[in-house]
Write a structure and sequence with these properties.
By secondary structure, this protein is of the alpha/beta class. The chain has five helices and nine strands. The protein has a domain of 123 residues: Rossmann fold, CATH 3.40.50.300. A hairpin with a 5-residue loop joins β8 and β9.
Length: 208
């Protein structure tokens, strides 16, 4: 990560991804506080690899990434313990994230309520529907009160009502200052959340 640059929460400069993909040129982008950017394109173009690289899971082949603030990553593979309850998984996530013990109960209670998880907190993750699972994933990703959220195909296989609910939650977070980098294969998912869309593999930008 680079030195802090004032006014931007995320800056990507001349990035070349380490995994083979079809990007037509090095990638540069930036996110202001409260801004949403959609990443749209076909499978295999490098969208998830981009998020993995920004999060530090994968190294970059070249370029520079500057993160000003805390970053959270809601991945397609959420890594939950299937035989544990949602509540236990949220406590595990709070522990992994380094949230102090005296703050964990309050933070989990807050995010569970905001994300509509309270009614099934005691259910095992293995018993959840796709919509329930996404709500838990979103609650977990917001536990650290991130400045930047990377969201990878979170709305796949969800009904329109659940998608609308998730969009409302994320819009509230954006109004509080959250910057959102959101990968999806469906432009409808970007509605109300993204001021612009970055098209893969051309890297052209659509302003909404």
């Amino acid at each position: 990560m680079g030195e802090e640059v004032s006014g931007k929460q995320l800056i990507v400069e001349n990035l070349v991804l380490s995994r083979k993909n079809s990007l037509e040129k090095p990638l540069s982008l930036s996110l202001e506080k409260g801004q949403g950017l959609g990443i749209y394109g076909p499978n295999g173009a490098g969208k998830s690899t981009l998020l993995d690289t920004i999060s530090g899971i994968l190294p970059a082949a070249d370029g520079r990434i500057t993160v000003n603030g805390t970053l959270s990553y809601a991945m397609q593979f959420d890594g939950f313990q299937e035989n544990l309850s949602c509540l236990d998984n949220l406590y595990l996530e709070a522990n992994y994230a380094g949230i102090p013990k005296n703050l964990r109960h309050e933070r989990i209670t807050q995010r569970a309520q905001e994300c509509g998880v309270n009614s099934f907190l005691k259910k095992k993750v293995s018993q959840l529907s796709s919509g329930m699972r996404v709500r838990v994933m979103l609650a977990a990703s917001l536990l650290i009160n991130p400045d930047i959220l990377l969201l990878d195909e979170a709305f796949n296989a969800l009904d329109e009502e659940t998608i609308a609910s998730m969009q409302e939650i994320l819009q509230r977070e954006k109004e509080r200052g959250l910057s959102l980098l959101f990968v999806s294969h469906n432009k409808f998912h970007f509605d109300s959340l993204c001021e612009s869309i970055l098209l893969f593999p051309s890297l052209e930008v659509e302003t909404r």
